[in-house]
Design a protein that fits this description.
By secondary structure, this protein is mainly beta. The chain has helices at about 20, 25-30, and strands at about 10-15, 40-50, 60-65, 70-75, 80-85, 105-110, 115-120.
């Protein structure tokens, strides 16, 4: 049996293979739109809750992007972490408020004999 990821927690983007969704009601809801026999079919979503069953297995409540109104309970070993979705992790990598004008790309029009084209300068 696969080992559960150590990065798996609540509010994390995950993906789940289609064969693990066959045990849930997702197959009935998605069966008309997807071929569940297709190889490497995966569905992405986000974890919303975590619990432990009577056998001490970690279970996660997942809201799939394809089924935003339904919450599925999946085993932690069936999920693959795509990225963390923490708002308070202190990393402002996507925050562009403090970008200087010198860091923005400039667009220059270069004219040639045949036609003009756009060239981006770093």
């Amino acid at each position: 049996m696969p080992v559960m990821s150590t990065n798996l927690d609540v509010n994390v983007h995950v993906s789940a293979p289609a064969h693990f969704l066959k045990r849930t009601g997702a197959m009935a809801l998605l069966g008309e739109r997807y071929n569940f026999n297709a190889p490497r079919l995966r569905f992405s979503g986000i974890t919303t809750g975590k619990s432990v069953d009577q056998d001490n297995k970690a279970l996660f409540e997942v809201v799939l992007d394809e089924l935003p109104d339904d919450t599925l309970t999946l085993d932690g070993t069936s999920l693959t972490v795509m990225e963390r979705n923490d708002a308070d992790d202190g990393g402002d990598d996507n925050n562009l408020e403090h970008a200087d004008a010198s860091e923005e790309e400039e667009e220059v029009v270069v004219e040639s004999d045949q036609s003009s084209f756009y060239q981006k300068l770093p």
